[in-house]
Amino acid sequence: MTEATGIVGEFLSLKEGTDADLLAMQCGDFYEFFAEDAEIVADELDLKVSQKSSHGSSYPMAGVPVDDLTPYVSALVERGYRVAIADQHETEDGHAREITRVVTPGTHLETGDESAQYLAAVVREAGRDGGDTYGIAATDVTTGQFQVTQLDDADAGEALTELYTFAPAEILPGPELRNDDEFLNRLRERTDAALTLHDSASFEPGRASHTVREQFGGEAVDSVGVGEQGVALRAAGAVLSYVEDTGVGTLAAVTRLQAYGERDHVDLDATTQRNLELTETMQGDSSGSLFDTIDHTVTAAGGRLLQRWLQRPRRNRAELERRQSCVAALSEAAMARERVRETLSDAYDLERLAARATSGSADARDLRAVRETLSLLGRVADAVTETERLAESPLADALAGADREAADTLAAELDSALVADPPGTVRQGGLFKRGYDDDLDEIIGEHEAALEWLETLPDREKERTGITHLSVDRNKTDGYYIQVGKSETDTVPEEYRHVKTLKNSKRYTTPELDEKERDVLRLEERRHDMEYERFQALRERVAERATLLQDVGRTLAELDAVASLAVHAVENDWTRPAVVEGNELSIEAGRHPVVEQTTEFVPNDLYMGDDRQFLIVTGPNMSGKSTYMRQAALITLLAQAGSFVPARSATVGTVDGIFTRVGALDELAQGRSTFMVEMQELSNILHSATEESLVILDEVGRGTATFDGISIAWAATEYIVNAIQSKTLFATHYHELTALGEELPTVENVHVAVDGEPRSAGSDGDVTFLRTVRDGPTDRSYGVHVADLAGVPEPVVDRSQEVLDRLRDDKAIEIRGSEGDDGGTTQAVFDLESGQFRGGNAGSAGAQVATDGNPEHATGESEAESATDEAAASLDPETEAVLSELTELDVNETPPVELMAKVQEWQAELDEE
Ligand code: ADP
Ligand code: MG
After folding, report:
1. Is residue 706 within 8 Å of 892, Cβ to Cβ?
2. Which residue has its alpha carbon closest to ligand 1 atom 9?
3. Could you tell me the distance, in angstroms and rounded to a whole number, from the CA of residue 798 to the centre of ligand 1?
């Protein structure tokens, strides 16, 4: 292939100079993608690919019109691509192109998504005493949020947990993490974030510190205590440098450095966020999540904040009580609450508008929106001060935190400047009110007078010439013209100069019209330029007040979030929990916040405390064990988000982390887990949980063979009770574990109560699960009932029940012949100890497959075997091979992972037929 030259060559060499994934290069009225990029883009966005030939070679090409670039780039970025944009500008000899910005998932300003969009950097250093120190910085360029933290003596798991709480769109791993494949793999597995290897030099302590000081000022850096050479500073410097490099231009909106301590919030790892369905369900829908259920916010910023509260619950009791007091006040003052929410519903997204102003992308409508929203501050403040219940609550302080006077001043300035309904473009005038600026007024005056002259020209001409079909108009090619109907073209005055003939009319100009046209065009251009200039200055002034916008935005968002919590509390009869230090978790008549929305929920109680730290939860399948435990976790989480909780009353000792693991079986059913993952997660919990944590283990150990499972569950329980001492709820179907409840002092058994006895053959035996939880272990397995619930055919369910009853009562079971045969019944004795059939006249398991109806086949061992052979003889060799392997395999001796692999292998073999 020949070296590409011309436009493709230019594209390829620009591409070479960027590490973006894709390049969009402006070529006149289009942005074009070439070569491989064209194919990727065409594929992702359903664009047409054409061929561009360049000096003998041909290259794929795909393009989008200049005005449509933004949505296309957004779509690409949302799919995880980093897109470089090369703009074209005029030069003395033609035009030149250069990359002006790179749009990436973490710096994407035009996101259509209302939720937060974090760019994060993570750095690791070896700590003094063996453990590692991690620094993490995260910013949301759409709102100017910037947060940093340092984790001392931490492991990779803790650092990842910290990162997950931001749900970053893009992550910049520090130089020392780039070769740590395990770390990177875990990142890839658990987040959708794009991983970007940003310039290592920007992570260097000296350079990073300088960047951070430039941005926030030295004092701010010192006062938040992230340390001169700290790892957090390195992460922060890298983030700032990356934002700068992408050219997105929002650094000015990033005004405040927030450092948060490790001990201030509750650890929630990615698995727990998913298990508890905080922002999306296990199926990946946002509808049906906890956030979706409790979200009644009326603004985008309020929604973001509420979501953040759920994803980053706090430990600071003063802050939690402050939020609770706001919720309490708002839930009692119904009228004022509705007034506040009604007012807030007119608010625009101030934090994002601030970022748009500072990046220079805000238009006049955006500034108008800033004005509308700033002016709401006064209105909600009035609603609060005029209502006694609210005025004496912490809401009043929260509102006092925003500078109402400054907000009013800026709002007034914007109002005096911009017309009420400005156009969507800022280069064509029509933005400013009269009286805002004298020079502008003069131009506008002249321009409008000239327009007025043109508008009234037809009437004057009609009168002067007596022509009736006469109009004045303007188009691109002819400029202004006088148009006269065909029937009257003979009578036009002689100064009319003909320019064009149409089917029914002719067009003319006059010297006077030509002159006015020049005037209008000149005035128009001057007016557009002057308005644009004034507009830029105005936007600049708004950008300078970015901090004010952010403050007011946050105040309104917080008001929206607490009002939303109040609405939910009132509508669902939630209660204010007592948030305390220590180990207690008592819930009286508690409910699951999401399940209660769709089900007649049976409330239940929970008590945990110093003497009851570990509860073993047993009960039939489908009786509500998982729900009960998640409910405990969610009530704790809601309490530490500052919310009320679904219960009659509750006391919640604050926790430092919530850890959950749902047994592989539930997850396997959804095809998302393996026993290996289950064990990794259990291991992570055993490493990370502390005595102040809440641990939820749901059927852990179930993804493996019975004996393995029991052993693991048993050992994990002992370890948690003896070594970790965290508050723990453990649901298990291994009744053996309940023995622990009797032996270990802080371990207690609870079970989900069942109303009535399980069905037995003969009675109609319907079981109603009560779903109330009582002390003591349950004593039975209800698998048959669940089979029934699941719609297993009636005869099978009935027969299963008979088998189960016989096994329990007589430890024996008869083997029946095939249908229509009443003679084929053989007795076999089941040994409960070994779980095997033994002795009797049906001595082997082989006898049970002899179901051809011939009693002889099941009467003696040798004959039974020959029957098996006979049946096998009719099978194809593959199936036979699988069967024999299956028979020989010892389930209790085979590692679970191997078992799964085996099953897969068999399935594949059987499939091949
Ligand atoms: P288990 O873990 O014991 O198998 P689950 O917790 O999965 O049972 O609950 C089974 C079903 O019962 C779910 O559909 C759940 O919504 C419902 N459920 C659980 N607890 C209650 C309750 N207290 N009141 C009403 N329905 C409940
Ligand atoms: Mg369950």
Report:
1. yes
2. 624
3. 24
Tens-place pLDDT, residues 615-663:
999 888 788 899 999 999 999 999 999 999 999 999 999 999 999 987 6
DSSP secondary-structure letter at 723?
I
- Quote the tokens at residue 145: 């949020």
**Arithmetic mean of pLDDT over the chain:** 82
What is the percentage of the chain residues whose pLDDT exceeds 90? Answer: 45
Distance in Å from the first CA to the final CA of the chain: 48
Ligand 1 site: residues with CB under 6 angstroms? 595, 599, 601-602, 604, 619, 621-627, 771
**Residues less than 5 Å from ion ligand 2, measured at CB:** 626
Beta bridge partners of 103: 83
User: At 669, is the pLDDT very low, low, confident or very high (cuts 50, 70, 90)?
Assistant: low
Residue identified by tokens 């993952």 is 677
Q: Which residue has the tokens 């003889």?
A: 873
Q: How far is ligand 2, taken at its centre, from the CA of residue 662, in Å? A: 8
Contact 588, 658 (CB under 8 A): no
Instruction: Judge contact between 88 and 28, C-beta under 8 A.
Output: yes
The HSE-up count of residue 421 (CA atoms within 13 Å, CB side) is 0
| Burial group, residue 158, by CB count within 10 angstroms (0-12, 13-18, 19+) | buried
594 C-alpha vs ligand 1 centroid, how far in Å? 12
The residue written with tokens 């006088």 in the block is 482
Q: Which ligand is closest in space to the CA of residue 594? A: 1
Residue nearest to atom 23 of ligand 1 (CA): 602
Side chain identity at residue 116, one-letter code:
A
C-alpha 355/C-alpha 250 separation (Å) is 6
Q: What is the 152 CA–ligand 1 centroid distance (Å)?
A: 41
Q: What would the two tokens of residue 636 be?
A: 């704790």
Radius of gyration for the alpha carbons in the chain, expressed in angstroms and rounded: 37
Q: Given a cut of 50, is residue 781 above it in pLDDT?
A: no
Residue identifier of the C-alpha nearest atom 4 of ligand 1: 622
pLDDT at 108: 86
98-145 per-position pLDDT tens digit:
998 899 999 888 777 778 889 999 999 887 666 788 999 999 988 888
Model pTM score: 0.73
Q: Is the CB of residue 864 less than 8 Å from the CB of residue 854?
A: no
- SS3 sequence, 749-779? EEEEEEECCCCCCCCCCCCEEEEEEEECCCC
120-123-128-129 Cα dihedral, nearest 10 degrees: 70
Q: Atom 25, ligand 1: which residue's CA is nearest?
A: 601
